[in-house]
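Teaching assistant here, posting this on the class forum so everyone can see the example we discussed in section. The complex has four components, and the goal was to see what a joint structure prediction looks like when all of them are supplied at once.
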Amino acid sequence: MPERNLPENGGAVVAALAQRGVALSDIAAIVHDLQSKHCPGLTLDDCLESVRKVLAKREVQQAILTGIAVDVMAERGMLPEPLLTIIVDDDPLFGVDEILALAITNVYGSIGLTNFGYLDREKPGLLARLNAGGRNSREVHTFLDDLVAGVAAAAAAKIAHGRGPRHTARRPAP
Amino acid sequence: MPERNLPENGGAVVAALAQRGVALSDIAAIVHDLQSKHCPGLTLDDCLESVRKVLAKREVQQAILTGIAVDVMAERGMLPEPLLTIIVDDDPLFGVDEILALAITNVYGSIGLTNFGYLDREKPGLLARLNAGGRNSREVHTFLDDLVAGVAAAAAAKIAHGRGPRHTARRPAP
Amino acid sequence: MPERNLPENGGAVVAALAQRGVALSDIAAIVHDLQSKHCPGLTLDDCLESVRKVLAKREVQQAILTGIAVDVMAERGMLPEPLLTIIVDDDPLFGVDEILALAITNVYGSIGLTNFGYLDREKPGLLARLNAGGRNSREVHTFLDDLVAGVAAAAAAKIAHGRGPRHTARRPAP
Amino acid sequence: MPERNLPENGGAVVAALAQRGVALSDIAAIVHDLQSKHCPGLTLDDCLESVRKVLAKREVQQAILTGIAVDVMAERGMLPEPLLTIIVDDDPLFGVDEILALAITNVYGSIGLTNFGYLDREKPGLLARLNAGGRNSREVHTFLDDLVAGVAAAAAAKIAHGRGPRHTARRPAP
């Protein structure tokens, strides 16, 4: 996609997330939980701005659109076996979801990795809801919960980079 | 999937590759081209054995089955836009295919990376055919050519690891 | 290194870890904490065996030997600035330690990523001790704590792969 | 490092590269060779600007400073065995150099991977010189040649992203 299409795809990503039950403010809340103790004065608006910047990256958009498409096709039973069962069951040994999430998390460097792992294991807030929805009903969120954790981890890393090691600087970095 | 299902999924992967026009002997030929000058006496059978060992890895199977499933759904027009156009056109700025291929290539460590990049750029043999088929017809091989290059690069790395830096040892390593 | 040198380097890695205060049984205890609730009957000996298999991989040995060498040189003040201060202070924005740890964690696929992130954030047992030693004294463990977390995460992933999604199989996979 | 120190470390990176015989214009020339056929009108100055932007990233600076420090210590015989011999000999099975280079290449997404692999195998221009210097003399460039290839690949990916799939847009993207 040429650069001029990025806003359009940005909109496509926000719409795709919304259709799957994910509001950007939910992701911003996860980021705030992760970073507020390190960054006094950090607001939810700061976190939302950081989430938006992560979602403006082409690599991030591609990973989210691809992962959600696979979830949806699994939900509709349109994948071939054995892949269908692996994804519908959210097999803990399936790793492609983590691979896509890692590509998102790395957008602001490897320091996002720690937060991604923490979120993926502890599943605070929205993540627990997605995970439960995926396991108890006909919804499939095998990719989605990892993708959202990846976006939150990247947004937290972006804030950390912008504030420096002592988190005293005021302006997030570009 | 429990370990006992691995042979079954191994069969699923070989069948999925065959349905998309890829024989294991084609991949073995690429591996032989890559490694024979470094490993005098390397046979096509050695290469085929190495390809089979790569395809026995769960991580590799998952990446291949997922990538081919996305190709097939793109071919059938079943993906949402803008993802459908990006994948059908094999947009050079789409990077999710390389991400999955990298997960394959890394199965035997990062030394496979160099061969993957070389294959992905030069597209010898089968890879050129897949790429041309994908660009000129209704076939979509956006993921497949990268996945096959990833398998060949990993199989070559496995041979290199088994023979050591001077490639004099006879037995591939486990 | 030819394959026949692997045992030798395996010994070099165990010795390098011991010199830095890390016993394999400490790593095995972390693995046991991670996996025992998912794998009833898992023993410390099972975990130790899995740690040893991770440490037998060339890629893992190289990452550990390189990371420890950089820690030691930082301790002796032998690195140039600004790198010396970044590593001695364990700057939270330094990401090369996570990059090396990720290469270890990925040896058994991306499912190790979640445990790595959790360990790196929660720092149970040995990891807290390494981290405190590095921050309060003249010891530098900037790489070491991440490398150990990476080994533990990979060993846990290996156990999970061996036991399958329901963790009922008895024998770890190769 | 707080954001305000980035220019300082940027200077440190340029100086460290210069001390090891690498001018930014040499890297720009590699980028131009990679991209000029896809981007009519691309100038060496465009490529130099892209190289500078890659070198302004903290993650890139950290990887370069760490890798060069290890090369220098190997040159001075200050690393422990068996790591010293592995790095002085530029053992083809050593993969930590590729791991650091990959962290650089990924700064603008995974599309840089292909060019990295190509450069690492074909070693055009400066890269051949670094490789030969490292193999024939007392210089050690085990990390440096991969790091430089990683920077060139990332700079080429940045140009490709900025110009879109048909490379007709005039302004590189941020």
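For the discussion questions: Residues 34 and 61 of chain C are 23 Å apart (CA to CA). The first helix of chain C runs from residue 6 to 19. Think about how each of these relates to the inputs above.
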